[in-house]
Amino acid sequence: MTDKLVLIVDDENEVAELVEKYLKRDGYRVVKAASGAEAIRKVEQHRPDLVLLDMAMPGMDGLEVMRQLRNQARYQAPFLLMSCNGDDSAVIRGLSSGADDYITKPFSPEQLVARVKAHLRRSDILGRIKEAPETMTLGRLKIDFLHRTVWVDGSPVPLSTKEYDILYHMIRMRGRALSLEELYRLTWGFDSNGDTRTLLVHISNIRKKLEPDPDNPRFIVTVRGFGYKISGFDIQASG
């Protein structure tokens, strides 16, 4: 049994009810919203631990809902986007808007529940970690592990939950290259099954936020044919 609360946001009642059934079967508490405006009210009222959000809804779509919650309410729980569109451009758009994961309809309810479990488990683990040191400076960057915040040249940088998690794992494993599959598994808690698009989009977004020249990265360096590594900065730790 779990006390975790999941918000399902979908204007298709049949989809919402099916997902609700499987989540409740696994012990999750569930609240539902059928529109973007209702979703924002439910988040403010219940502060769910995770949001399953349909990307294409009439009126306020899922991306706008997520943007408002991230920017206005500073709500940092994981967002999993659900969409009928599996094109790379749609995946990139969703993840670049702040989503932690993207799942294409129609999906297996069991697979969706497995992803929910993995995201909540990773969120719990990272939330409990007491880092030593508490902060770290890498050139222009400063990372506060205790409060999960990042600064560049003294200005805070808004990273999504998964962007921070990826950065955390790369810094924790600094000194060696991480394969795409290993970094995916560390961050999401399950195998990618060969689909690492989500990870690649997040890496691109992190570079845009942290690198002076994202097209010629000096901090998150590509290891061709393998993965990525942290490079290029002297590290100073404190705390």
TrEMBL record:
- Chain ranges of the OmpR/PhoB-type domain: 133-232
For the modification 4-aspartylphosphate, the affected residues are D54
Q: Which UniProt keywords apply?
A: DNA-binding, Phosphoprotein, Transcription, Transcription regulation, Two-component regulatory system
Asked if the Swiss-Prot or TrEMBL record annotates the protein with the keyword Ribosomal protein, the reply is no
GO CC list: cytosol; protein-DNA complex
* Record Pfam families: Response_reg (PF00072), Trans_reg_C (PF00486)
Q: Which residues form the Response regulatory domain?
A: 5-120
Biological process (GO) annotations held by this record are:
regulation of DNA-templated transcription
Could you tell me which residues form the DNA-binding region? 133-232
Recall the GO molecular function terms of this protein's record. phosphorelay response regulator activity; transcription cis-regulatory region binding
Protein's name according to its UniProt entry: Response regulator
